[in-house]
Amino acid sequence: MAKEKELKIADWEAEERKLEEEYRRRLEELRATRETSEIVGQVLTRGLLPLYVLHLLNEGPRNGNEICMSIGARTGGAWQPSTGGIYPLLRKFEKQGLVEGTWQDPDKRTQRLYTLTPRGREEMASLRTGMKAKMQRAFRVFEIVLVDLFGDDRQEA
Asked: Residue 146's pLDDT is what?
């Protein structure tokens, strides 16, 4: 009876070690998944739009509507940000000294034209450097999911 009890305790301790190892392994997987998910989210929301807006303004002065239309045209309509997202970003950039906004007609104040400042060019260069690796990682994740869902037959829909 004592041997049987010792065996059960030893089995239980071994099972407990296995469960701890499995828990640690899954926790590491979750951490890696969360990190990748955060990177993908940053690429699509927080990082890409500010960088693209600065990039467009680096080409020349624009108003918010022109920025939205440029992004829509360049992406073939696949990405059409709203002015409701662009104008707050432009105001934030203006407060940070990244862009300078001037009214086309100061008396009417109907259209505000934004120009990239030297500080804005520096910020754009910094964002480019940081975003490239994040975008490449996000593309790898999308490629994995694409292959997983559709196999090697990935013709455009």
From this structure: 87
Greater confidence (50 vs 152) lies with 50
Q: Parse the chain into domains and list their residue ranges.
A: 2-131
Average pLDDT over residues 39-66: 82
Residue 52: alpha-carbon gap to chain centroid:
12
List pLDDT tens digits, range 123-144.
Answer: 999 989 888 888 888 888 888 8
Instruction: Report the C-alpha dihedral over residues 5, 6, 11, 15, rounded to 10 degrees.
Output: 100
Q: Indicate the CATH number for domain 2-131.
A: 1.10.10.10
